[in-house]
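Second attempt. The first submission of methenyltetrahydrofolate cyclohydrolase had a stray character pasted in from the spreadsheet, which I only caught after the job came back as garbage. Lesson logged: always re-copy from the clean sequence file. Corrected sequence (127 aa) follows.
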Amino acid sequence: QAELKVEAAAVSERLGRQPRLRVILVGNRPDSCLYVYRKLERCREVGVEADVQHMATKATQEELMEAIRTANEDDNIDAILVQLPLPPHMDESEAVDSLRPEKDVDGFHPLNMGMLMMRGRTSRLVP
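This time the job returned cleanly.
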């Protein structure tokens, strides 16, 4: 955790502000809610600003895609986490594929997965 604080401080200095994570959470699965809550706590402990865009279980795919588009386009959001699994009526692949690779905190975007599979390469996410 101390290393993460140092890294977050370096990113803060480079950006001129705290790095910011946007979590998109669809529904109320207890395990997902607990995971997100703990992720937010850890972010705050190391100096990363984090917020949750909580969407109803019945949200549409288009509403989810709009939330992702908005976060992708927001220069003050440095990383995005779409909490999986999504409700059964949603297309997880479409959601993950629509993330900007450099904002994909989980590294699930196909470009990031490919980079991780290649020897000597890393994900495009900038910490």
